[in-house]
């Protein structure tokens, strides 16, 4: 008899044995339908065996082997096994969570064939001269189709909105779908620039790597890292290889997809991110697995895409925190990508203007090869000049200094754009009673309610609780309640009052909540219909606004003295990134930072555009304090409605950790930085070690003990290499 060991989506660390009826066979990686409890569920075959430890009367048969799509390849299963072990997450849940949702059900999946688009008879009879000129994209598509039929990807390469226009053309009957795929010629490549010497050096170094090698591409903003990626991709595509390009969540826009497609018009590119519907995600995954898609562009989850011809991995903005998943399998896609590159023996490139200290340290110690782009690619585009505005003795009722207002006024006169960057949305972080000192706290959390004046509400940014703004103090009845601190809405209002004629646009999570709003806003900015942008970090990343010459940073100081040891690393990255928005084209940019600590090393480094000195200072501090990357950490978190339950569990976990007597440092149980959230109490326990290996050994011993602890009414989790505390 033959048996299979199956991974199922259940919170147990074991696999489950089933037998195969005589006329059925299954191979590793295949999806199977099995009975689990009273349900039928889909699992993945991890092993095939000729025996089992399960007694004959208890073992059940595989209900059905699913043949609709090819098995999950062995290298992917190996990667998932590694992740399950490394991040201490049940294997079955790890494997199933990596699959697109469709593949977790037994509904048959059919791989859609790639379509080709051609002009219909009525389309061929059209006189393009008679169509309205302003429909530029329509003209471009039709003109391209007059020359030749196009694949979907080629259409996508025409413009970021080409697919929407194509739909209209199909409806009008001028264009039709043909089933036969367009035969591929040698992939063409739009070579936009000749590389600078530094870019060429970076490209050559990576191209010479014949097996695994990890490169850290440290390039200042505007130095042309993207161009390096494109040339590396070209090399790989010529050899028929596949490229995996990971980007942070917020950067993955249709513009980016269009950009890469336009550089490789004949190559099939698929994107994978949480914004796709399930059908699209499954199709894209299968096209990558079949080897048809040669470029996979995606957010962290795409690191688990099967790629038979994988030849290169690129992680753009490698320092970005969105590569770390914050629930379930708490993986770092960057770190998994590095493991995957090793496993598949292919080079990997980590790119950033402000590398994470972990990566920079690895480059210093020689584990990664450092490649530097120290100049802007476009010689005319100067780096912005950065200055601090000392506000230590100033009283700024609306949070904006006179010097900042003056600089904004100059830009308005010159008809240039400005960006005011502030890391808090809403009107003000808290409402205070001037008589008794009452503060607007959240009833469910340890945090404060943020004042949103637009709809006169107080909102908790942690649990979502909201209530109307009280007319009088709930504590003493005084009617004089004042906003304390500033948020985007307050800045917007203050600026509008000061510059009544200025066109001001606020960009934050509140103003862009509706789908598509951000795209419309971006268009407004590009068309110069905006004078002043007020925004949060949403605006910091990867957008090119050529007419933007001033960036003002309002209140960066709290990060300097945060209890989170990564806060200043994040601040430096963020400010470098916003600073990079200023003066991208021929107009020089200026960055003004309002701070009470203008002499702080962080601002000095920012002014000097000197990441390296800053990074070295930070690394020295981290080494002295015993923080990553000099130690490896795991954080146990627990939460529950009863504080005593939470702490009882945590103290037992602590005792179990101590009892191991292993080469790790076990800290005390402490309340989380946000000790109460949505009516739950949160506590945490940190364990760290000088080596990854000893921490992993410890975890393998500790996790089974944690699983044994009574934990009714609690939720707990392990976070290996945590980014947030
Ligand atoms: P980064 O990603 O490093 O911030 P980008 O790749 O966006 O930089 O490049 C910045 C600008 O420089 C872009 O407008 C790009 O087209 C241009 N550029 C890149 N490489 C070159 C080059 N070799 N010669 C001229 N311009 C270049
Ligand atoms: Zn009061
Ligand atoms: Zn709350």
Q: Notable features of this structure?
A:
725 residues, alpha/beta, GIY-YIG endonuclease, Rossmann fold, 5 domains, seven-stranded parallel beta sheet, six-stranded mixed beta sheet, 20 helices, binds adenosine-5'-diphosphate, binds zinc ion
Structure characterization notes:
The chain is an alpha/beta fold and 725 residues long. It has 5 domains: 2-104, GIY-YIG endonuclease (3-Layer(aba) Sandwich), CATH 3.40.1440.60; 116-178; 197-373, Rossmann fold (3-Layer(aba) Sandwich), CATH 3.40.50.300; 385-428 and 485-621, Rossmann fold (3-Layer(aba) Sandwich); 632-720, Alpha-Beta Plaits (2-Layer Sandwich). Helices cover 31% and strands 23% of the residues. The strands form 7 sheets. The chain has a 7-stranded parallel beta sheet, with helices on both faces. Strands 5-2-1-4-3-6 form a 6-stranded mixed beta sheet. The site of adenosine-5'-diphosphate has 14 residues, from helix 8.
What is the CATH class designation of the largest domain? Alpha Beta
Question: Can you say what the CATH homologous superfamily of the largest domain is?
Answer: P-loop containing nucleotide triphosphate hydrolases
Helix-strand makeup class:
alpha/beta
Q: Major sheet, described briefly?
A: 7 strands, parallel
Please give the share of residues in helix. Answer: 25-40%
Query: What ligands can be seen in this structure?
Result: adenosine-5'-diphosphate, zinc ion
Strand order of the largest sheet: 12-13-11-14-15-10-16
Number of strands: 31
Judging from the principal axes of the Cα atoms, what is the shape?
globular
Report the sheet-strand fraction: 15-25%
What is the CATH topology of the largest domain? Rossmann fold
N- and C-termini, Cα separation = 51 Å
Task: Compute the number of structural domains.
Answer: 5
Helix run count: 20
What is the C-alpha radius of gyration, as a whole number of Å? 28 Å
Identify low-pLDDT runs: none
Assigned CATH architecture of the largest domain: 3-Layer(aba) Sandwich
Mean of all residue-level pLDDT scores? 91
């Amino acid at each position: 008899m033959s048996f299979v060991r199956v991974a199922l989506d259940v919170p147990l660390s074991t696999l489950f044995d089933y037998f195969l009826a005589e006329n059925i066979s299954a191979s590793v990686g295949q999806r199977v339908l099995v009975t689990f409890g009273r349900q039928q569920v889909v699992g993945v075959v991890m092993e095939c065996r000729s025996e089992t430890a399960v007694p004959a009367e208890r073992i059940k048969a595989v209900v059905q082997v699913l043949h609709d799509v090819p098995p999950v390849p062995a290298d992917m299963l190996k990667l998932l096994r590694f992740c399950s072990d490394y991040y201490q997450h049940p294997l079955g849940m790890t494997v199933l969570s990596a699959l697109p949702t469709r593949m977790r059900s037994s509904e048959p999946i059919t791989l859609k064939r790639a379509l080709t688009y051609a002009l219909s008879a009525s389309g061929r009879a059209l006189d393009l001269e008679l169509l309205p000129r302003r429909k530029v994209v329509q003209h471009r598509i039709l003109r391209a189709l007059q020359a030749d039929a196009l694949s979907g990807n080629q259409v996508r390469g025409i413009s970021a909105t080409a697919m929407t226009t194509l739909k209209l053309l199909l409806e009008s009957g001028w264009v039709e779908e043909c089933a036969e795929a367009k035969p591929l010629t040698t992939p063409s490549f739009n070579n936009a620039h000749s590389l600078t010497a530094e870019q060429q050096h970076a490209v050559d170094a990576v191209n010479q790597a014949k097996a695994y090698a990890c490169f850290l591409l440290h390039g200042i903003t505007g130095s042309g890292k993207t161009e390096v990626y494109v040339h590396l991709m070209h090399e790989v595509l010529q050899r028929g290889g596949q490229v995996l390009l990971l980007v942070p969540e917020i950067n993955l826009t249709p513009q980016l997809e269009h950009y890469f497609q336009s550089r490789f018009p004949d190559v099939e590119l698929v994107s994978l991110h949480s914004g796709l519907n399930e059908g699209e995600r499954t199709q894209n995954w299968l096209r990558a697995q079949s080897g048809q898609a040669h470029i996979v562009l995606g957010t962290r989850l795409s690191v688990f895409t099967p790629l038979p011809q994988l030849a290169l991995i690129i992680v753009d903005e490698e320092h970005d925190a969105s590569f770390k998943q914050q629930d379930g399998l708490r993986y770092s896609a960057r770190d998994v990508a590095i493991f995957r590159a090793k496993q598949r023996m292919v080079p990997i490139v980590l790119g950033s203007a402000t590398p994470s200290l972990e990566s920079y340290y690895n480059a210093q110690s020689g584990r990664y090869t450092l490649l530097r782009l120290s100049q802007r690619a476009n010689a005319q585009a100067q780096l912005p000049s950065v200055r601090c505005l000392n506000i230590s003795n100033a009283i700024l009722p609306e949070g904006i200094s006179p010097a900042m207002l003056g600089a904004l006024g100059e830009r308005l006169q010159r008809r240039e754009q400005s960006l005011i960057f502030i890391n808090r949305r809403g009107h003000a972080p808290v409402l205070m009673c001037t008589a008794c000192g009452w503060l607007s706290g959240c009833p469910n959390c340890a945090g404060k309610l943020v004042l949103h004046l637009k709809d006169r509400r107080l909102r908790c940014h942690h649990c979502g609780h909201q209530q109307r703004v009280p007319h009088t103090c709930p504590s003493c009845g005084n009617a004089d309640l004042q906003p304390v601190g500033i948020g985007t809405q307050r800045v917007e209002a203050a600026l509008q009052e000061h510059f009544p004629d200025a066109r001001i646009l606020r960009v934050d999570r509140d103003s862009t909540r509706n789908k598509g709003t951000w795209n419309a806003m971006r268009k407004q900015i590009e068309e110069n219909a905006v004078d002043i942008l007020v925004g949060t970090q949403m605006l910091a990343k990867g957008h090119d606004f050529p007419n933007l010459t001033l960036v003002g940073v309002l209140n960066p100081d709290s990060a300097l003295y945060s209890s989170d040891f990564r806060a200043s690393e994040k601040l430096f990255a963020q400010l470098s990134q916003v600073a990079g928005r200023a003066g991208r084209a021929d107009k020089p940019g200026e960055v003004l930072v309002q701070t009470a600590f203008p002499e702080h090393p962080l601002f000095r480094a920012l002014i000097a555009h000197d990441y390296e000195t800053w990074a070295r200072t930070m690394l020295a501090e981290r080494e002295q304090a015993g923080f990553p990357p000099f130690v490896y950490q795991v954080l146990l978190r627990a939460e529950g409605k009863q504080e005593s339950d939470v702490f009882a569990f945590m103290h037992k976990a602590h005792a179990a950790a101590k009892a191991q007597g292993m080469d790790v440092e076990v800290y005390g149980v402490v309340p989380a930085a946000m000790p109460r959230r949505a009516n739950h109490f949160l506590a945490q326990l940190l364990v760290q070690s000088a080596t990854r290996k000893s921490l992993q050994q410890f975890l393998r011993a500790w996790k089974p003990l944690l699983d044994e602890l009574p934990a009714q009414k609690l939720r707990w989790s392990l976070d290996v290499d945590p980014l947030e505390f």
